[in-house]
Amino acid sequence: QVQLVESGGGLVQAGGSLRLSCAGSGRTFGSYAMGWFRQAPGKERAFVAAVSWSGGSRSYADSVKGRFTISRDNAENTVYLQMNSLKPEDTAVYYCAAGESVGVVTTTPGYWGQGTQVTVSS
């Protein structure tokens, strides 16, 4: 099992950038695929991005592809979400997640963080 803690959220102007971090506990962090989800006001929690244990495989939602980049540093037990060209519709609580594979993270993650708020203003 892993425990996940997100950080890096905040308020930015449209077109700006933010980098979210998710710190995981335990030495088994590197065995898990990691991902990010978000929940915007009035919407269901939605998949954003995922990365395999090695970082060799990545998956993105169509809404963020080309703007967001997921990466990980297993030595630091941390996964990142670099968000560029932010839009007001990106405003949401962003959650870190972990699972056995990219496919699992995309659909049914086994572990969740508490979330961090991202607000993009016009």
In short:
5% of the residues lie in helices and 48% in strands.
Structure description:
With 122 residues, the protein is mainly beta. The chain is built from one helix and eleven strands; from the N terminus they run E-E-E-E-E-E-E-E-E-H-E-E. Strands 2, 4, 5, 6, 9, 10 and 11 form a seven-stranded mixed β-sheet that branches. The longest helix has 6 residues. The model has no long low-confidence stretch (mean pLDDT 94).
Specify the overall morphology.
globular
Uncertain spans: none
Number of contiguous helices:
1
The protein's oligomeric status is single chain
Secondary structural class: mainly beta
Number of E-type strands: 11
**What's the average pLDDT?**
94
Radius of gyration: 13 Å
Instruction: Compute the separation of the termini in Å.
Output: 40 Å
* Helix amount: under 10%
SSE sequence, one letter per element: EEEEEEEEEHEE
Strand proportion: over 45%
Main β-sheet: number of strands, strand sense, barrel status?
A: 7 strands, mixed
Keywords:
48% strand; four-stranded antiparallel beta sheet; mainly beta; seven-stranded mixed beta sheet; 5% helix; 122 residues; 11 strands
SSE inventory with pairings:
Elements: E1 4-7, E2 10-13, E3 18-24, E4 33-39, E5 46-51, E6 58-60, E7 68-73, E8 78-83, E9 92-99, H1 102-107, E10 111-112, E11 116-121
Parallel strand pairs: 2-11
Antiparallel strand pairs: 1-3, 3-8, 4-5, 4-9, 5-6, 7-8, 9-10, 9-11
